[in-house]
Amino acid sequence: MENFHEEVQAPVSPHGQYFNSSVICSYVFDFLEFAVPIDYDSQAITLIRDIFLPINPRFSSIRVRDKYGKMRWQKVEVKPEEHIKIPIFPDTTSSELYDQDLDDYVSRILTERTPQNKPLWEIHIIKYPTKNAAGTLIFKLHHALGDGYSLMSALLSCLQRADDPSLPLSFPSRTPQHAKESLFKKLPSDISSFFSSISDFGSSLIKTKIIEDDITPIRSGYEGTESQPSNLSSITLSLDTIKDIKSKLGVTINDVVCGVIFYGIRLYMQEIDNKAKTANSTAVVMLNTRNLAGYQSLEEMQKPEAKGLWGNQISFLHIAIPKLYQSTISNPLDFVWHSSKLIKRKRRSFSVYLMGMLLDLEMKLRGPEIAAKTIYNTIGNASILVSNIVGPMEELALANYPISGLYFAVTGGPENVSITVMSYVKMLTITMRTLKGFIDEQKLKYCMEKAIEVIFKEAMEISERTSQN
Q: Which ranges constitute the DSSP H helices of 112-238?
């Protein structure tokens, strides 16, 4: 048991209570793959004490109830060695890889809860080589500490550029597409968005409270799957390939990625059960609701004028997954165009903020457990959960150990398929957390790889036909 300081600090945010309740216990896992073998025991303790803990008070705090019954963060004494986990895998020949051992270990820690009487994070150091890395480091961070945006910024503050540690990291800039429009061009869009927002909010509310997706090869309909074992698999795509598709089709990178995911999901559903091609399936996309045009560094997030950027500032967007033989979907590229059109309209909608207001109202009137149940139903009534984070454009290093791969995963929800997307240097990793024993992760991985292959081929061919005409 750790020693308590008397100081009771900031209140736990509503989302911090939703994601650490009897209904949902959610974690963000950040995976660092190293290009060289790692021997990091003593350095890890120094890193935690000198760099990681000072990032944010929540990393050295636990949740307690004050005398008024409100949840607050309370500072405690942190013993770094109690948060470091170094597994020992069975002995084998030195030349053998440990992919299966790592997969089994990750599957186990995905569902394990961290003790509530200690700060809600762990670091797992895997010293064994796999086909992708000479060693792996896993940050396990409770969602109550912050959302993916906050937690990833915290992790990146512990890393340096591999080429020159004195230089800052850089990230792809994103400018809202409507930012440069004139008032006269924006006005009709704003008026139409008002009515579409009301429609979107109504449909999201019905989806959350009443209507469930069909039972399909990607949605079992079983209760309590959030506590069942999961598998983790991933595919890595070239960002140049994604950008080529983007430029040929006149869409965004996110549109291409969503199109690939939706097409891959439908291919998988049809592979398992041909009847599933007509099933009603929905994706819940997690959105960062910060009013930002691009990524903000940790230093920028913690400036006094940027108060409030840390924490959980997310909402959920319902996107219907197009059907393979839908009348409006005639070829794989339509998955990208359809996704582009739908996401653009819904992003202009303020229904995501209305859903946030609804959660706040439920929190005030009925308490965090009921609000957590609303989030649980929002995810559980849909088929897949999708989340993405923009990563750095330069190669990173941790204490001079070069990092060859960087990706993340999210746990704690009732979905049977959770998909996370992260860019790193010139690559983009799509990570799939799938319900063990229900989802064939290898077949799903194959369908995702086939989806990007087919969409790229079609995009290049349509470009050639256009140039010939």
A: 148-156, 183-209
Domains of the chain: 10-161 (3.30.559.10), 183-387+423-468 (3.30.559.30)
- pLDDT tens digits, residue range 59-98? 999 999 888 888 899 999 999 999 999 999 987 766 678 9
Structure tokens at 301: 């997030």
The two beta strands, 401-411 and 230-238, are unpaired
What value does the mean pLDDT take over residues 13-23? 86
- Tell me the C-alpha distance between 151 and 389, whole Å: 11
Q: Mean pLDDT of all residues in the chain?
A: 83
Taking residues 27-31, what's their average pLDDT? 95
As a residue count, the chain comes to 469
Q: What is the pLDDT of residues 105-163, one digit of tens each?
A: 999 999 999 999 999 999 999 999 999 999 999 999 999 998 777 788 888 888 999 99
CA dihedral over 233, 239, 244, 246, signed as positive or negative: positive
378 near 18, Cβ under 8 Å?
Answer: no
Report the C-alpha gap between 262 and 285 in whole angstroms: 12
Structure tokens at 168: 């800052």
Please give the structure tokens belonging to residue 379: 């995810």
Per DSSP, the residues of 345-400 read HHHH-SHHHHHHHHHHHHHHHH-HHHHHHHHHHHHHTSSEEEEEE---SS-EEETT
Q: Phi, psi at residue 37, to the nearest 5°?
A: -60, 145
Give helix 332-348 / helix 183-209 axis angle, nearest 10°: 100
CA–CA gap between residue 13 and residue 415 (Å, rounded): 24
Q: What is the pTM of this model?
A: 0.87
Contact 38, 135 (CB under 8 A): yes
Whole-number Å distance between alpha carbons of 158 and 170: 15
Measure the CA dihedral 162/79/312/152, to 10°. Answer: 10
Residue 73 Cα distances to 7, 28, 116, angstroms:
9, 19, 12
Give the long-range contacts of residues 441-447, CB within 8 A, separation 24 or more. 441/231, 441/233, 442/233, 443/268, 443/271, 443/272, 444/233, 444/264, 444/268, 444/417, 445/233, 445/234, 445/235, 447/264, 447/265, 447/267, 447/268, 447/271
Answer for the pair 209, 382: CB distance below 8 angstroms, yes or no. no
3 state DSSP class of 299: helix
Residue 38: φ, ψ to 5°: -115, 140
Structure tokens at 10: 């900031």
